[in-house]
Structures are given as structure tokens and as C-alpha cells.
């Protein structure tokens, strides 16, 4: 099965196994205690866990899929890694499923894999480890089609650490139980470390019943999937294609929507600008267009303009 499955199924299965290994590396760095923090910019830290997890993910995927373009947040990495970091396995459970017809014949050169080895780095360094995720997004030409969101610090009922959520458009999602957000409320999930006055103005326009301030694009989309929030609002530039590719694919495979604040999808081909200049608006079980229309004109003029 593994050798004959279509490329997208093998990329997804390999990404599931690799994200789990990267999650182990992220836990190990924290356990050792020396985070090796480097500031890449304002509110933009990088740690030894970001660097090592990226090396593990890109070395593993590049070895298995040498002709697929892979773009990682932490730039060019040394792919000479120890065998322990080279993940060979393909997740067997995932491979049991059949490939949606639309992706069966996609060629390796039509894929881009967007890797965020550790989403929520600021929160990782501040002890909010439950916000941390590993994101591997799979784009076909312009579209975010498949995604893995791995939570290294999620404690399973049996005590095991980590859980892995996946989504593939046309197939569905796995690794979690979807829960609708509570009726009669409107809960927004948003940034806790990258807000500004304009972003606050956008939040105010929604007449929400509650605003949850948490880290990471992956964790906020998980909150939508698990019914903790109705919408994810980020009306400022700052997050990048590797932050949104996997969350968008998983959310949309579950019937939700992730766009910029104008309601347009970002393109994820290899030549796009990395920054998501027009912010992020995501929802599940909502009238997404009605949410787009709530963004104030002043915010749209400043953030939504091309
Ligand atoms: N201004 C920014 N500079 C760098 N990264 C950003 C910025 N804004 C958002 N991000 C990335 O998007 C994620 C979601 O943002 P937020 O938590 O503020 O909602 C952040 O965890 C960070 O990803 P990462 O942690 O992988 O660097
Ligand atoms: Mg970062
Ligand atoms: Mg990120
Ligand atoms: Mg990151």
C-alpha cells in the first residue's frame, strides 16, 4: 500500500509521523532547559527547539520526497541530521484511507510543503506550552489542501504526551473530536502577543461575548475545531504562509473557512510573498462573509489594501 499510494497520501502520512518526532524534540529541548533564544525581530523569537524541529522535519521530508519544494520558517537548515531525527515511517492508519480522486494524479512538482516547526514560540519561551503546535501544510499549486497540526504538550487520557490532528480536503479530518461552538454566544480567539490599536478596533466591531487571547495560529484554529471559539481574528500583518497553510487546510476540510480580512484565500505556491499582509479571519459554522463585512473601513484601508 505505502509504496503505491498517491504522492499526496504518502506526503500526509510521512508528515504525520515526522510532526510527532518534531514534537518529541520540542519537549526534549524544554526538559534540558537551555532554550538558546535568538531574536529574529520585534516579538519574533527563535529557539533551539524551532531550529532542531525544522531540521528534523525538512531532512526527513526532503529525503523521502526529493523533488517536492519545502519552505520552512527558519530558513535554510543543515540537513545533515542524526539517524534518530530522520523519520522513515509513514503513518499506517492514515494510509488505510483512500485518496480523493482530485488529488490522485498531482505530480511532486505541483506541491509545496510549508513547515512551521514550532508555532507559538513566544508562548513556548513563556511557559504557555499548551499553545505550541508543529504545523506542516501541503499546498497544491495555489491552494492549501492538506495539513498536520501536532500539539507536543497535549496530555492524552492515558498519560501519553502529544496529539496529531490532520485534515485533507475531499477526505476529511482526524485526530480530534469536532465540537460546535456554543449557540447564543460569539467567542473570538486572537493574538496575545501581536496586538495593536487597529487590531483592537477590529475586535471591537464584533460585539463578542468573550475574547480569548492565546498564542499561535495552529492553536487558535484548534479552538475553532473544538468549539472553544466561533471566529479567529488577526487584523494585522505578521503571520506568514507557514502559519496558515496547515490550519487553513485542516479547518476547511472540516467545513470552515480561513481567509484574509477581505474574505480572500491566500495563495500558497512557492513564489508567493511569505507575509500574510492582509491579516487572517477564520471561522467554523458561521456566515464567513458576514464576518468579513464587520471589519471596520479604517482597518480594511490599512490592513486589507493590496
Ligand atoms: N509580528 C510577527 N512576527 C513574527 N511572527 C509572527 C508575528 N505575528 C504573528 N506571528 C506568527 O504567527 C503566530 C500566530 O500569531 P499570534 O500568536 O500573535 O496570533 C505566532 O505564533 C508567530 O508564529 P511563530 O511562533 O511560529 O513564530
Ligand atoms: Mg517564529
Ligand atoms: Mg508560526
Ligand atoms: Mg514557528
Automatic annotation (TrEMBL):
Gene Ontology terms, MF aspect: 3'(2'),5'-bisphosphate nucleotidase activity; inositol-1,4-bisphosphate 1-phosphatase activity; metal ion binding
Gene3D superfamilies reported for this sequence: 3.40.190.80, Fructose-1,6-Bisphosphatase, subunit A, domain 1 (3.30.540.10)
Record has DNA-binding as a keyword: no
TM region(s), chain numbering: none
Keyword Hydrolase assigned: yes
InterPro entries: CysQ/Inositol_MonoPase (IPR050725), Inositol_monoP_metal-BS (IPR020583), Inositol_monophosphatase-like (IPR000760), Inositol_monophosphatase_CS (IPR020550)
Highest rank taxon of the organism: Eukaryota
EC category name: hydrolase
Residues the record lists as binding Mg(2+): 73, 116, 118-119, 243
EC numbers on record: 3.1.3.57, 3.1.3.7
Alphabetical UniProt keywords: Hydrolase, Lithium, Magnesium, Metal-binding
Protein family according to the UniProt entry: Belongs to the inositol monophosphatase superfamily.
Identification of the protein by name: 3'(2'),5'-bisphosphate nucleotidase 1
Lineage start: Eukaryota, Metazoa, Ecdysozoa, Arthropoda, Hexapoda
Amino acid at each position: 500500500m505505502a509504496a503505491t499510494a498517491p504522492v499526496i497520501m504518502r506526503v500526509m502520512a510521512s508528515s504525520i509521523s515526522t510532526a510527532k518526532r518534531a514534537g518529541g524534540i520540542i519537549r526534549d529541548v524544554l526538559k534540558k532547559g537551555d532554550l538558546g533564544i535568538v531574536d529574529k525581530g520585534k516579538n519574533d523569537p527563535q529557539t533551539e527547539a524551532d531550529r532542531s524541529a525544522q531540521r528534523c522535519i525538512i531532512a526527513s521530508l526532503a529525503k523521502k520526497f526529493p523533488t517536492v519544494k519545502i519552505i520552512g520558517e527558519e530558513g535554510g537548515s543543515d540537513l545533515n541530521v542524526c539517524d534518530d531525527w530522520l523519520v522513515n515511517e509513514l503513518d499506517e492508519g492514515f494510509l488505510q484511507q483512500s485518496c480523493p480522486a482530485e488529488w490522485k494524479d498531482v505530480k511532486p512538482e505541483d506541491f509545496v510543503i510549508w513547515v512551521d516547526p514550532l508555532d507559538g514560540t513566544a508562548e513556548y519561551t513563556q511557559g504557555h506550552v499548551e499553545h505550541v503546535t508543529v504545523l506542516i501544510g501541503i499546498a497544491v499549486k495555489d491552494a492549501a489542501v492538506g495539513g498536520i497540526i501536532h500539539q507536543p504538550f497535549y496530555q492524552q487520557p492515558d498519560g501519553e504526551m502529544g496529539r496529531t490532528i490532520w485534515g485533507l480536503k475531499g477526505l476529511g479530518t482526524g485526530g480530534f473530536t469536532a465540537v460546535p461552538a456554543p449557540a447564543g454566544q460569539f467567542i473570538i480567539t486572537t493574538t496575545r502577543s501581536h496586538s495593536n490599536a487597529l487590531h483592537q478596533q477590529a475586535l471591537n466591531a464584533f460585539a463578542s461575548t468573550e475574547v480569548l487571547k492565546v498564542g499561535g495560529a495552529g492553536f487558535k484554529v484548534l479552538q475553532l475545531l473544538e468549539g472553544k471559539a466561533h471566529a479567529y481574528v488577526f487584523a494585522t500583518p505578521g503571520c506568514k504562509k507557514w502559519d496558515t497553510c496547515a490550519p487553513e487546510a485542516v479547518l476547511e476540510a472540516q467545513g470552515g473557512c480561513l481567509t484574509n480580512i477581505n474574505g480572500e484565500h491566500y495563495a500558497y505556491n512557492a513564489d508567493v510573498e511569505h507575509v500574510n499582509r492582509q491579516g487572517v479571519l477564520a471561522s467554523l459554522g458561521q456566515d464567513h462573509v458576514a464576518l468579513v463585512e464587520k471589519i471596520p473601513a479604517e482597518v480594511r484601508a490599512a490592513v486589507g489594501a493590496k
